[in-house]
Amino acid sequence: MDWKPILQNRWLLVLGVLGVALLLFGTMWNRTGSSVSTLASAGASAKSGNANTTSTALSTNASSVDPALAFENIYDTQLTSILDQIAGVNSVHVMVTLDSTESLQLAQDIQKTTQSSSSTVNQQPTTVRLADGSTAPVVIQRLAPAVRGVLVTVNARDFYTAKAEIIDAITNVLDVPAYKISIEPQKQNS
Length: 190
Fold this sequence. Notes:
This protein has 190 residues and is an alpha+beta fold. The protein folds into two domains: 34-102 and 144-190, 2-Layer Sandwich (GMP Synthetase, Chain A, domain 3); 105-140, no CATH class. The protein is built from six helices and nine strands. The chain has helices at 4-8, 10-32, 39-48, 52-61, 67-83, 159-174; strands at 89-98, 103-106, 108-114, 119-125, 127-129, 135-137, 139-143, 147-156, 181-185. The strands form four sheets. Strands 1-8-9 form a three-stranded mixed sheet. The chain has a two-stranded antiparallel sheet with strand order 2-7. The protein is elongated, with a radius of gyration of 23 Å.
């Protein structure tokens, strides 16, 4: 193998090694955080400037059998429409898989009773009485399900440039490490 061209362009080699090191550092850094960013607010506000669009779509799909499937469909649709707008991308198809469904954090009523020799703690969900007379728990926070992985097929003028831009976009929007994203070229119709 002729090493002369590589040694003449050392700066490319150094830049490549630095890029790989930053990519690895970035994926390790994201694993330590426990915050969950949602595509729902980011994608809807990017399209229309209003985050209520996605929550309406989610509540419409929530009546389906599997709520995780509703989230996956929303993520797929929003990512497809956003990634289709990237310069140089002709067509794109997205598949998002989730680890679980949406989780809720409920408010708790804590009653602590202390006797001379022991103490007991009783926790019950805080409930409110609705106008129709029924009761419902108080929800403090809704957490979007964790994304397990993303598969994207793309037809682009320059596949490798499009691949880098798509990975960058998905890691920023979904807070998913790059190793969980797979970008593949679409089959050419002949």
